[in-house]
């Protein structure tokens, strides 16, 4: 079945770096946009980044622009999020999700189980 | 502060119907057929419940329905069941970004 599994989370000090991975299976990864979405503890969802099928189009939320870099390896069916200059407010569960489109809009399905990133000294 | 406004909480008794609203701010217009809805149980990943405003993915109960009018999209849960107790988020696609509502906690009394 369609599945997304994130890895790479953990604890890091402010200013540090971390790289998240998302392994996809059950669908043709290269046919879909992918996205990262995060959720701070006890808070709501926040969209982080989109990447197109080829990686040629990439978008970021203003809160992470210049610090985070999204990439993908279609041969490995994997999505990545390189997070640099991390701040305490980046502490969150990070989800990868497949992005679907139709009729001028988009939605996310499925989502991975999420991975916790904690930024603290 | 979320760009999409949802009520913080909605409650209902088993069997009743409840409706969750999702309204755009003065700078963000909600076009209901661009909205998707997600259900999230504690400690779990969000699950798609409605897309394109009113369409249900395969496997989602027909007790869940989406609608909208003006600057507001709505999610209605009919025949409320204990398993529906969760957080619900609306989302509006904006081309190069996506907005989420602040989330609504649904409590089954």
Tell me the layout of helices and strands.
The complex is a heterodimer of chains A (121) and B (109).
Chain A: E1 3-7, E2 10-12, E3 18-25, E4 33-39, E5 45-51, E6 58-60, E7 68-73, E8 78-83, E9 92-102, E10 105-111, E11 115-119
Parallel strand pairs in A: 2-11
Antiparallel strand pairs in A: 1-3, 3-8, 4-5, 4-9, 5-6, 7-8, 9-10, 9-11
Chain B: E1 4-5, E2 9-12, E3 18-24, E4 35-40, E5 47-50, E6 64-69, E7 72-77, E8 86-93, E9 98-100, E10 104-108
Parallel strand pairs in B: 2-10
Antiparallel strand pairs in B: 1-3, 3-7, 4-5, 4-8, 6-7, 8-9, 8-10
Question: Please, could you describe this protein's structure?
Answer:
The complex is a heterodimer of chains A (121) and B (109). Chain A is mainly beta. Chain A is 0% helix and 56% strand. Chain A contains no helices and eleven strands. In chain A, strands 2, 4, 5, 6, 9, 10 and 11 form a seven-stranded mixed beta sheet that branches. In chain A, strands 1-3-8-7 form a four-stranded antiparallel beta sheet, with no helix packed on it. In chain A, a hairpin with a 5-residue loop joins strand 4 (33-39) and strand 5. The radius of gyration of chain A is 14 Å and the shape is globular. The termini of chain A are far apart. With 109 residues, chain B is mainly β. Chain B has no helices and ten strands. Chain B has strands spanning 4-5, 9-12, 18-24, 35-40, 47-50, 64-69, 72-77, 86-93, 98-100, 104-108. In chain B, strands 2, 4, 5, 8, 9 and 10 form a six-stranded mixed beta sheet that branches. A four-stranded antiparallel beta sheet of chain B has the order 1-3-7-6, with no helix packed on it. In chain B, strand 6 (64-69) and strand 7 form a beta hairpin. Chain B starts with a strand and ends with a strand. At the A-B interface, strand 5, strand 9 and strand 10 of A face strand 4, strand 8 and strand 9 of B.
């Amino acid at each position: 079945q369609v599945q997304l599994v994130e890895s790479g989370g953990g604890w890091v000090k402010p200013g540090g770096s971390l790289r998240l991975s998302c392994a996809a299976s059950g669908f043709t990864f290269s046919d879909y946009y992918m996205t990262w979405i995060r959720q701070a503890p006890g808070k709501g969802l926040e969209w982080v980044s989109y990447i197109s099928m080829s990686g040629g189009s990439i978008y970021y939320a203003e809160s992470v622009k210049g610090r985070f870099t999204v990439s993908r390896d279609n041969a490995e069916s994997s999505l990545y999020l390189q997070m640099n200059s991390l701040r305490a407010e980046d502490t969150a569960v990070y989800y990868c999700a497949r992005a679907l489109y139709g009729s001028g809009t988009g939605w996310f399905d499925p989502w991975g189980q999420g991975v916790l990133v904690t930024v603290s000294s | 502060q979320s760009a999409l406004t949802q009520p913080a909480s909605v409650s209902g008794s088993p069997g009743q119907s409840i409706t969750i609203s999702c309204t755009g701010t003065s700078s963000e217009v909600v076009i209901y057929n661009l909205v998707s809805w997600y259900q999230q149980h504690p400690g779990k990943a969000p699950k798609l419940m409605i897309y394109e405003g009113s369409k249900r993915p395969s496997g989602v109960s027909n007790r869940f329905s989406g609608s909208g009018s003006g600057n507001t999209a709505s999610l209605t849960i009919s025949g409320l069941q204990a398993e529906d107790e969760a957080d619900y988020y609306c989302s509006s696609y904006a081309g190069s970004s996506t907005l989420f509502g602040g989330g609504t906690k649904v409590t089954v009394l």
